[in-house]
UniProtKB/TrEMBL annotation:
Name used for this protein in its record: Protein kinase domain-containing protein
InterPro entries tied to this protein: ARM-like (IPR011989), ARM-type_fold (IPR016024), CIK-Related_Protein (IPR051177), HEAT_type_2 (IPR021133), Kinase-like_dom_sf (IPR011009), Prot_kinase_dom (IPR000719)
Comp. bias intervals (Low complexity): 599-619
Lineage: Eukaryota, Viridiplantae, Streptophyta, Embryophyta, Tracheophyta
Superkingdom of source: Eukaryota
Length: 794
């Protein structure tokens, strides 16, 4: 039974072999006869501190006091008292005698005297740190004296240790005793082990062993004296040699001197209670103590107090001791954000403090918190994360971004706040390179396709910029179906002039990804239109782009003439426009920080002149496109060009739900934001009249090539469209125009008029078999054209 009780008091282990910790190097100092060593856990390698005390036999007085310290440390719990983890007592044979050793395992700490030397603080920062540490020890002593009615008996520099977060904690409980003025046995351990306390730390009543006076004194009398000794050792920078040295107050701060003198009063009853020291001392009222105290009781503060505090914290942190900020404030701030007690402005302070960490410490201490914050439903937190993503984005691994971060960030693409949508878009400049191809193709491009038709012009512009920047991270197939469609059909036709300019620059910067056929048939026709853009900046960029792409075509022409046809894709890494895209994108993203900043530009680019220019653009584009199709049907070169740039299966249109089926007949499949204004009658009339004046004689071998048009419109739609044009011969020159404008918007083909020669007689309604001899009536477009072309009677 006694052996069992001894095991309970001494610890949970039966010997050193059962100690689940490894003992490392000892520190140079420790309290009393104890040895303070570093240590690690055998399970996970986490750091600990191991205190050991040896004696020649089990009845050694040091061991008896040590067992009392183990028992007290195990049972007394307080934030400012050393945390107990494990203890054991081991017996070893030392020659002919038995050696008994007590082991106490605690949280990892360092002796205060060594930590002070390591920090090397001076001036105001040193005083602030000392004030905070003394504040913690005073709270621990007050807890023992006033709440637990216990007397520590030996408060001094050696009985204080410092944690990894630079907190001060009280230990050395070997002499700890209950205090009861009515019981003579109340000071038993103190009476038994008071010889362990150095005479220089003893107040006069304890030095004289006047136990009657001690019992009549308040419970804090002995420990208040000890706290005064600690203050002296702390500010003098040396161990207390004798009691008389306490009279030397030259090193004591003036704001602390009155309290210091009251702590060391010669009359026990007049000594200052440590609880009063905490409440009243002017010395503890400084920025560091106030900041940490606010963080400790953060949950009790209202939202206004939190906002005010966290907005001041970034500047305040620069004035506080750097080591304390990084090791104490930063973990507290991260924890408060992670568990929701901190407001969104705290994120700015967190990232500023984190910028002072090394890359390894940043990844270990801050990144896990940031990743968890991305899942927050607080919009202000999400805005803060996106605004500062450049500070930590590079530290995020590709796996974390793809699996944990992106899914939460992507919700901002469809947020009702335009500001959050734009911040989400800008963040992709850093996150997109870390995404997998599956995520880019299956998710990101869908969101970007929708943002290209966003109601905010700045967002549309930045989407084009982003696509130009992340083009290198797309695979070849994705680039072919996305880039040209995104830049030509949408960006170049945007009503917002900076968006058109961004489209031109994006085309130039990604020119190495287009083959020669795409450049000649899809890019140049669209860019040339912008050389007459109302905006001078767009015109300048358009001329540069035309020169750049014509240079590529000329290089291809020269290679072809030289017999080198090995590749139709031209790289232009030497062209300045391609090399400067990143800088352009960054400046554009910086200038357009908020969509509201673009408001002044919108009216100037959405006025009546722009509308007419857009109409002219549409007219020119509609005129140019059928011309290319006609050449395609007449030459063998086009047989290779048509499959090179598919129109109805470009993929980018499929990724975006905003493209309607009636636009499938458009060459690029991206005509959803093109102004749908009818072309001006004089311009269209001039085009049709010019076409009709040309001699048209289409030989029969060309007829089979016309069916290459149906991939752009359905078969029935094609028959109806051409039937309405071919049947009635126009009475006046304005008739074809009326027919054209009545047709579908998808096929504005003014060149369709040249399918029939200038009429020589009044055309009558189309009837079955007219002018076709014995051939049966065929409503097909091709059949009608053959007869009308070859018949001389029409």
């Amino acid at each position: 039974m006694l052996k069992f009780l001894k095991g309970v008091v001494a610890g949970s282990g039966a010997g050193l072999k059962d100690l689940p910790y490894n003992i490392g190097e000892p520190y140079s100092s420790a309290w009393g006869s104890w040895t303070h060593s570093r240590g690690t856990s055998k399970d996970d390698g986490s750091p600990v501190s191991i205190f050991s005390l040896s004696g020649s036999n089990a009845q050694d007085g040091h061991l008896a006091a040590g067992r009392n310290g183990v028992k007290r440390l195990r049972t007394v719990r307080h934030p400012n008292i050393l945390s107990f983890l494990h203890s054991t007592e081991a017996e070893t044979l030392d020659g002919s005698s038995t050696k008994v050793t007590i082991y106490i395992v605690t949280e990892p700490v360092m002796p205060l005297s060594e930590k002070i030397k390591e920090l090397g603080l001076e001036g105001t920062q040193r005083d602030e740190y000392y004030a905070w540490g003394l504040h913690q020890i005073a709270k621990a002593v007050s807890f023992l004296n006033n709440d637990c009615k216990l007397v520590h008996g030996n408060v001094c520099l050696a009985s204080v240790v410092v944690t990894q977060t630079l907190d001060w904690k009280l230990h050395a409980f070997d002499v700890l005793s209950e205090f009861d003025g009515q019981s003579e046995a109340a000071t038993g351990p103190l009476l038994q082990y008071e010889w362990l306390v150095g005479s220089q730390y003893k107040p006069m009543e304890l030095l004289k062993s006047d136990w009657a006076a001690i019992r009549k004194s308040p419970p804090w009398a002995i420990d208040s004296w000890g706290l005064g000794c600690l203050i002296y050792e702390l500010f003098s920078g040396m161990r207390l040699g004798k009691t008389e040295e306490l009279r030397n107050t030259a090193s004591i701060p003036k704001s602390l001197l009155p309290d210091y003198q009251r702590l060391l009063s010669s009359m026990p009853s007049r000594r200052l209670n440590t609880s009063k020291l905490i409440e009243n001392s002017e010395y503890f009222q400084n920025k560091l103590v106030d900041t940490i105290h606010f963080m400790d009781i953060l949950n009790l503060k209202d939202s206004v107090e939190k906002d005010t505090f966290f907005r001041k914290l970034p500047n305040l942190a620069e004035q506080l001791p750097r080591q304390i900020v990084l090791k104490k404030l930063l973990p507290m701030l991260a924890s408060a954000l992670e568990f929701g007690s901190a407001a969104a402005p705290a994120l700015t302070a967190l990232l500023k403090m984190a910028s002072w960490l090394s890359a390894e410490d940043f990844s270990a201490k801050v990144l896990p918190t940031i990743v968890k914050l991305f899942a927050s439903n607080d919009r202000a937190i999400r805005v803060g994360l996106l605004q500062h993503i450049d500070q930590y984005g590079e530290s995020l691994s590709a796996q974390i971004v793809d699996e944990q971060v992106y899914t939460h960030v992507a919700t901002g693409f469809s947020d009702t706040s335009a500001f959050l949508r734009e911040l989400t878009l800008k963040s992709m400049l850093i996150l997109a390179p870390k995404l997998s191809q599956r995520t880019i193709s299956g998710s990101l491009l869908k969101y970007l396709s929708k943002l290209q038709v966003d109601e905010e012009p700045a967002i549309r512009t930045n989407t084009t910029i982003l696509l130009g920047n992340i083009a290198s991270y797309l695979n070849e197939g994705t680039r072919k179906r996305v880039l040209i469609n995104a830049f030509t059909v949408r960006a170049l036709r945007d009503t917002f002039s900076p968006a058109r300019g961004a489209g031109v620059m994006a085309l130039c910067a990604t020119s190495s990804y287009y083959d020669i056929t795409e450049i000649a048939t899809r890019i140049l026709p669209n860019v040339v239109v912008l050389t007459i853009d109302p905006d001078s900046d767009v015109r300048s960029k358009a001329f540069q782009a035309v020169d750049q792409f014509l240079q590529i075509v000329k290089q291809y022409h020269e290679k072809t003439n030289a017999g080198d046809t090995t590749g139709s894709s031209m790289g232009i890494s030497s062209i300045p426009g391609n090399a400067s895209l990143l800088g352009w994108a960054m400046s554009s993203l910086t200038l357009k920080s908020k969509p509201s900043e673009q408001a002044p530009l919108a009216p100037a680019n959405s006025s009546a002149p722009l509308a007419s220019a857009s109409s002219n653009d549409s007219s020119v584009m509609d005129t140019a496109t059928p011309t290319l199709i006609h050449v395609s049907s007449a030459t063998d070169f086009s047989d290779q060009a048509v499959p090179a740039s598919p129109t109805s299966t470009d993929g980018w249109g499929e990724l975006e739900n905003g493209i309607h089926e009636e636009h499938e007949s458009d060459k690029d499949g991206w005509d959803d934001i093109e102004p749908l204004e009818e072309p001006k009658p004089p311009s269209a009339l001039a085009n049709i009249q010019a076409a009709q004046k040309r001699p048209v004689s289409q030989p029969k071998p060309q007829v089979p090539s016309r069916p290459k048009i149906p991939p752009k419109v359905s078969k029935d739609e094609d028959d109806d469209l051409w039937g309405s044009i071919a049947a009635p011969a126009p009475k006046t020159a304005s008739k074809p125009l009326n027919v054209k404008t009545a047709g579908a918007v998808d096929d504005d083909d003014p060149w369709a008029a040249i399918a029939a020669p200038p009429p020589t007689t009044r055309a009558k309604p189309l009837s079955a078999g007219r002018g076709r001899g014995a051939k049966p009536a065929a409503p097909k477009l091709g059949a009608q054209r053959i007869n009308r072309t070859s018949s001389s009677g029409m």
